[in-house]
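Record format v2
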Amino acid sequence: MKSTGKKQQTTQDRLNSILSPYRGRGDAVISVLQEIQGEFGWVFPEAIEQVADALKVFPSEVYGVATFYAQFHLKPMGRHTIQLCTNVVCSLFGSEYLLRILKTRYGLEVGGTSPDGRFSLVVMECIGSCDSAPAMLVNNDYHNNLNAENIVEILKRYE
Amino acid sequence: MNAETKKDGITVLLNGSEVKSDHGMTVLELARKCGVYIPTLCHDPHLKPVGSCRLCVVEDGKSGALLASCVTPVAPGMVIDTESEKVLEARRLIVELLLSVHPDSCIVCDKGNLCRLRKIASELGIEETGLAKLRRYRPIESANPFIERDLSKCILCGKCIRGCREIEVTGAIDYAYRGFDSMPATPMDRPLDSSECEFCGLCVSLCPVGALSDKPGRYMGRPKESVPTVCPYCGSGCNINLELRDNVIVGVSPVTAHPVNRLSLCVKGRYGYDFPNSPDRLKTPLIRKDGKLVEAAWEEAIGLAARRLSRIKEQYGSDSLAIVGSLRCTNEDNYLIQKFSRAVVGTNNIDTMARLSSAPALETLETIFGFGAMSNSIEDIGEAGAIFVIGAQPTESLTALGREIKRAVKFNGAKLIVADPRTTKLARFADVHLKIRPGTDVALVNALMNVILSEGLAGRDPPEDIHGILRRYTPEHAGEITGADAEEIRRAAILYGGASRASIVFGTGIMQQTSATDCVSALANLALLTGNIGKRGGGITPVAAKNNLQGAWDMGLSPERLPGYQRLKDPAVGKKFEQQWGVTLPQGRGLTLMEMFEAAGEGKLKAMYVMGANPVKGCPDRAHVMDALGALDFLVVQDVFMNKTAEMADLVLPATGFAEKNGTFTSTERRVQRIRKALNPPETAMPDWRIITRLSAEMGYPMSYESPEDVMKEVALLTPIYGGISYERLKCGGLQWPCPDKNHLGTAVLYEEDPGKGSFRAVEYSPPAEMPDKEYPFVLIGGSSLYHSGTGTMSRRAGALGAFFSGGFVQINPTDAEKLKVSDRSPLRLTSRRGSLTVDARVTGSVPPGVLFMPMPSDINILTGMETDTASKRPAVKACAVNIKPVETKT
């Protein structure tokens, strides 16, 4: 019990140091959520209430923002987040097939995390790469002209 | 734009005819003013327009553009067409799109013909939509007893979200998700009952479709008539319409024209209305025979009461009898019980349960300023630059005030200072939350004045003796006493002192402690020091949590005051009453409520007459109160329901409830308002005023009133502050006293003519009577709950309220819980010097370590003590020292 208490303490400290420059700043919800996600990998439920209290907005408003933007994850994510485009052009060029590869090779379901906690998969809207489809983001890195072979090679770089 | 057009307004062409518009009007407002119909779904005049449904589009004749009329300001020379084919086509498409994702469940939808979508669809001649139906299945949420949510019917107009935020300032819901998945949601999509939702029901009344519906009153048929009256719960004085069907209330709606409540009601007002039909209503008089209460006829009951009371009066003298009036009954009922006491029985032994809550506040305010009442109005708190809330939970106990405070903070930029040991709902809105130890309020308030003086923020110079005392209360010194941070105290003082208008709100946390008189004096000093008396947005407000507490106080239910704060001692006043009543008034101060129990215990008091009150449940030290009542020769209880006091009575008289009689209530902001008979009472129950007149006649003093209106005529005649009040003048909104004559419009803010009124009174901090010690290490405080009122006589019998929240738990800090091995929701034995009881624990960080909190209604009075505040003769029912022990449960 003691060790979890200590761990919670540090989580709280990390959260406090994110929140403290923004106290009373109701216009900073997006920035704060981005920092929280950067620090913790996801926006955990307890954080929503605390963001609301610190920024003097309603928790429902914070939740509204967090659910509106695809960039925010309300579930714990793997170490690396794959965001694969499945819009028309990427689909025509085989992104559906890539989804199948990700599933069979890494156990990745859309919206899910691989059993080893290495990858999470999010399907996203167009990332402006129709000329070199299919395309994806891994964390903040951009990769295009994907196919069944090179996607595996690319993902090897993310341990 | 020149001044000429500004004055004349704007001329535009609306559907071919020339019309004049005021500046700042929207096209929709202009159209409605001119009687031109434009359909809307997301618009409500009480909410900020957002233009999201696009149904209100009109065609701009010049450009041919379609404009959302609810957000388009009228501009000079506009040519507007509200019914062009282009407009109608656009509207039809919007409605068809909405219908394409709307379930076809109209036949079983409780919204029925009130559905705006259905109405507008039929107006636009839409039959079946040609668009493919898309299904958006959402589970129906129905676990709570108040509101059912079926979001598959939601049209995303956002009225519920905006109402919750802009009007109630609760913010329980907001749009979540995106695109087709959008919906109003609580954080983490929790059900309403585990969210911030307070079940005020505003969202239901705003919802244009069947997505939100009231659960009480569902499928009971549409109301046949509607009677406007006043809500019977707290002292806000909200006006409600009782929606009736065959002598049953099937719903309650707010009287929207009313200045206090407008669209809003709280959960009690909106959903707690079924108690008049409760099966345990008293229906006939009950007389104790062979130890049991048995039904009797009125003749027998009144005869018995008259005989016994007269005999006791003859044998032991008038002062061997005492009367307890009601904070729930009307002014007329209370005026008459007071007259009965003084003119028929001949005693000043008359008091109310207000002795336990507001007496010190009201008496102290009266001594300092002249009137024992809220100085300002609920509405004008919106003009305050700073609001200081101490020991009060207005969001729970005086919801209209709580709402205005939240609105002032959220939308008018008012600074909020909350002083409370607990993290109350309001504390979350605070700029400074001072978590002070229970009972250390005087030290805090003195320290605020210390800072205000040293910072040069004082509006006037206090007398030297006050200066001397305040000098010692540095923030650091007060910090040691109160446990609050000295810097925070300094910040709070600068916020309050720096505002040009600052308001003080205090509640039972102040009023129910042994040093209550000192606390209120200190707060009055603070208001005087900063010049916040006699102006809008300033003032000092005691939170009175009962519907007619103020009225009972006004009607002279006090051992030393006649109606309207007129002193018994004043010979001219005495003469006026003696002439009108044709009797000689009893002299000298009578017994207060607690003195009555003492006298009864000692055998000096022989009989008590209790009207609409439940001292066994509501007074501290229950065992002592029950012993005292048991020692009486004769106890009469006149009430609507059987209660713990009535169970001990020799005679029980059935009275009618608020919905079954006419009369007036006076709200906490001195607003005298009419209540109206809507229901027929069960069997032979009679209005209180009529019971009193019958008993009085039987005792040889006939009172000739035909109706409560006659009683009010006499009140107006004898009571200068009610001088101008008569039933025909009491329209929606009533009149705020002082209203001295029939042309006077009432008084919203007291002391406006004389803002310098009131004198400083030096007060020092003294520790609470009962401090925690080794044996009893915790401070237990009681407080209000949003879902109940008083001892729960009404609210516990309201099906939905009782089902949702039964009270009966105690909050404990996680640190304490861990130390004592108390787990959440496990039973806990609380023991004080006077008694013990078992309740469930709720482990929560909203109470600080060392403090326990128990919401009403509860049996807390088994534990609390009788130590009385010396000046106001009232006991400290708010806090006491206890120890706790987890109860072993057999598994």
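Residues 104 and 229 of chain B are 38 Å apart (CA to CA).
Chain B is about 30% helix and 20% strand.
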